[in-house]
Design goal:
Blueprint: H1 2-6, H2 9-29, H3 45-50, E1 61-63, H4 71-82, E2 88-92, H5 125-140, E3 144-147, H6 160-165, E4 174-184, E5 189-193, E6 198-204, E7 208-209, E8 214-215, E9 218-222, E10 229-238, H7 246-253, H8 255-262, H9 266-269, E11 273-276, H10 291-299, H11 318-346, E12 352-355, H12 369-372, E13 380-384, H13 390-402, E14 409-414, H14 422-434, E15 439-442, E16 445-446, H15 468-486, E17 494-497, H16 500-505, H17 512-523, E18 528-531, H18 533-538, E19 540-542, E20 545-548, E21 551-553, E22 555-559, E23 563-564, H19 566-577, E24 581-585, E25 591-592, E26 596-597, H20 600-603
Parallel strand pairs: 1-2, 1-16, 2-3, 11-12, 13-14, 14-15, 17-18, 17-22, 22-24, 23-25
Antiparallel strand pairs: 4-10, 5-9, 6-7, 6-10, 8-9, 19-20, 20-21, 25-26
Length: 604
């Protein structure tokens, strides 16, 4: 204290300035991964293209299998990769083969196989220590580190997804419908033992509530003589996927643990988590204990007696029930699961990517693929070997555009073998850049090839390749294009309706017509976005265009859209009357959420 008193005013001021400068620098660097790779609407394109900011380089899958993790070796690989246009890693783990590794999977496994857990085993104390150390090393090189949940996120593989199922609050939660049907003849007596977790019993046609004919655990109903009927006995069974706390707890047992374990490496080192082949199996028939109340609050009627429509066609009202049900189901899935995870990432300014099952070609994946995949800051998909994922990438980029997400993740070129060449890679990469991909994730970066024999969906595109010195320059090329294709706002003239509504109302509907139409547009050199019904409904009509998320569509194509939400139909009509161009091919919509089929308003 005495020494401080003996200092002059100038010395004191200098110390204060230096301390403030150090504190300011710490604040800057403590947010170095925050908003990394987030594009700008008004960027200085030329300077950014010449020298892209961090966040637009390669973010490969870094496979930590094949050998024990050695810090010296990891540090050496990091040094090599930091000298290329590589901005992050999504660490990945392979799965075992159910046909080969029979003994290891005799007690069951998730999705395609049990995780090959590496050495040290993933999520062990030794692994966490290695992870935290490597995160700091990455931070020192200005590189982000995240985990790809491929295999470890699959329910049945024994990690955090299974941990959730074992929580007391989730055990016994009634989250799935069991709809049994029995055909009964007129003039007979129908008896049935009421099952556990009984919800309701109803007869169609007629929507006759049979619960009043239940005494004790028996249903006894005298069937009218005039007709044959179907009796539906509906009960529930255990499933926790729509529990109100599912997303909050998922964040706690997964993402929050990384934040705690990485500690002071978080600001500079944590980024690029990746959702891979999502094991969140909601479907027609998913339920929640409060679904009935939530549905009535949102749709204005009790769905209980209409639930047989989820299983079979019960009359003209069937499409309406299915569309309304799916809409509420997705509302709950978004609010309870997807949104809490998305909010965790976006509040920290992080990139959160995805490649989920069916990859956009099945609109019913996760009940509504478009909505489910809108909850990532970088919606995306993989691109296989020597084939094309142009349409899949087009779906992903359309989600990015319409939901104003940050990037479109392209998981690039697994399983094409070691014969990969730079000319072929360039052709493939440009092909998918044209479809809207703008975050490059080279699928193969191997920690080890285990003496040259070990491999997973080869090749490794990085320092193991003889053309690595040239590959480094090629990655700079993809970095510049990633930057360029990410800035500003995408604009095109054509919106092609994504056929979610048709399939929800009529699961047998033919989606090939929509995707064939998309390829015809692409082959003609015409740009377009797939548009989902929520984006259509929130669009504003002005100047003969549909305005939504910065887009201005002059043309709307309905390719074999057999059903629409009534609000969607009203927006289509408003757009047409304002001078917009509406093109409908094959079947016109024949049902909506107004009254279903045979609606004079729809047919007018």
């Amino acid at each position: 204290m005495g020494r401080w008193k003996r200092m002059g005013i100038f010395d004191k001021k200098r110390i204060i300035v230096v301390c403030f400068f150090v504190f300011f620098c710490q604040m800057i660097f403590s947010q170095s991964q925050k908003f990394r790779g987030y594009p700008q609407k008004d960027a200085d394109i030329l300077s950014g293209f010449s020298c892209p900011p961090k966040g637009y380089g390669n973010v490969p899958f870094y496979w930590w299998n094949g050998d024990s993790l050695n810090r010296e070796r990891m540090k050496e690989q990091l040094e090599i990769l930091s000298e290329s246009a590589t901005d992050g890693f999504a660490v990945s783990y392979i799965h075992l083969d159910p046909k080969v590794d029979v003994e290891n999977m005799k007690d069951g496994y998730g999705l395609f196989g049990k995780t090959e857990s590496g050495r040290p085993k993933i999520f062990s104390e030794d692994w966490w220590n290695t992870w935290s150390w490597f995160a700091k090393e990455c931070a020192s090189k200005n590189i982000g580190l995240g985990l790809d949940d491929y295999t470890v996120g699959w329910i049945g593989n024994g990690y955090y997804s299974d941990e959730l199922q074992e929580m007391a609050k989730f055990r016994g939660y009634q989250g799935e419908l069991n709809i049994q049907s029995v055909t009964v003849k007129g003039g007979t007596t129908f008896t049935y033992d009421i099952p556990d977790k009984f919800l309701t019993a109803v007869v169609w046609p007629g929507k006759t509530d049979l619960t009043k004919y239940i005494s004790g655990d028996k249903l006894l109903w005298e069937v009218p003589c005039d007709n044959s009927y179907k009796v539906y006995i509906i009960s529930t069974k255990e499933n926790h996927l729509l529990h109100p706390d599912i997303g909050k707890e998922y964040v706690r047992v997964y993402f929050d643990r990384f934040e705690r374990r990485m500690s002071d490496a978080v600001p500079d080192g944590m980024n690029y988590f990746f959702q891979d082949e999502l094991s969140y199996h909601i479907k027609m028939g998913s339920w929640a204990e409060d679904f009935r109340d939530e549905f009535e609050k949102r749709k204005g009627y009790d769905i209980t007696l209409y639930l047989p429509a989820l299983k079979e066609f019960i009359g003209d009202i069937t499409p309406k029930i299915r569309l309304d049900y799916c809409d509420v189901l997705m509302d709950l899935a978004e609010e309870r699961y997807f949104r809490p995870i998305y909010d965790w990432h976006v509040s920290r300014g992080l990139i959160y990517g995805s490649d989920n099952l069916r990859r956009g070609k099945d609109p019913l994946a996760y009940v509504d693929y478009f909505r489910a995949n809108s909850w990532y800051t970088a919606p995306g998909n993989d691109a296989p070997s020597t084939g094309s994922s142009f349409l899949q990438t087009k779906v992903s980029s359309s989600i990015t555009h319409l939901y104003e997400r940050q990037r479109t993740w392209l998981e690039a070129f697994h399983s094409m073998g070691w014969g990969s060449s730079a000319s072929w890679l360039t052709k493939q990469m440009d092909h998918h850049f044209m479809a809207g991909g703008n975050l490059v994730c080279m699928h193969g970066l191997y920690y080890s090839t285990h003496g040259g024999w070990w491999e997973w969906a080869p090749p490794c595109f990085h320092f193991r390749m003889p053309y690595w010195p040239h590959m480094k320059r090629w990655l700079e090329y993809t970095e510049r294009l990633s930057y360029l294709m990410s800035q500003g706002t995408h604009v095109c003239d054509i919106a092609l309706m994504y056929p979610t509504e048709s399939l929800q109302a009529y699961p047998e509907a033919n989606t090939k017509i929509t995707f064939d139409q998309a390829m015809k547009l692409s082959n003609a050199g015409l740009d377009y976005d797939f548009m989902d019904y929520r984006s259509l409904q929130k669009a504003k009509v002005a100047d003969g265009c549909l305005h939504v998320a910065g887009e201005k569509y002059k043309i709307l194509i309905l390719a074999n859209m057999k059903a629409l939400h009534y609000a969607s139909m009203e927006k289509v009509l408003e757009f047409y009357r304002a001078g917009g161009i509406v093109i409908a091919t094959v079947e016109l919509p024949k049902a909506s959420t107004r009254i279903g089929e045979n609606d004079p308003v729809m047919d007018a």
